[in-house]
Specification:
Layout: E1 6-11, H1 14-26, E2 34-39, E3 45-46, E4 59-65, H2 66-69, H3 73-82, E5 86-87
Antiparallel strand pairs: 1-4, 1-5, 2-3, 2-4
Helix pairs in contact: 1-3
Length: 97
């Protein structure tokens, strides 16, 4: 994920992350422009796994490739904020899905 023009946000619960992802997908943004990672209590980032939706101890990172999504950074940041996310100063290296 180090190539391209990315913006990312962290979310305290999966349902908030899902709200942002759903909004992006409803704008006809390709799923390949969106990356999602779970952050475990010890700070390890990993790809989402079955059963994660039942866990309240995970934090979520959603990253959007603005080049592929073809939306302005301000729109992505506003969407993250509206859905309960905090925009990250830098985009972390996302795990492979």
């Amino acid at each position: 994920m180090n190539q391209g023009n990315y913006v990312a946000a962290s979310f305290p619960l999966l349902r908030y992350a899902t709200g942002a992802i759903d909004w992006f997908r409803n704008q006809a943004i390709d799923a390949n422009a969106i990356a999602v990672a779970a952050v475990t209590p010890d700070g390890t980032m990993r790809a989402p796994q079955r059963g994660d939706n039942l866990r309240s101890d995970l934090e979520w990172i959603v990253a959007l490739d603005l080049s592929k999504a073809r939306i302005p950074r301000a729109v992505a940041v506003a969407t993250f904020a509206r859905e309960g996310g905090k925009t990250l100063a830098s985009v972390p290296k996302m795990p492979a899905s």
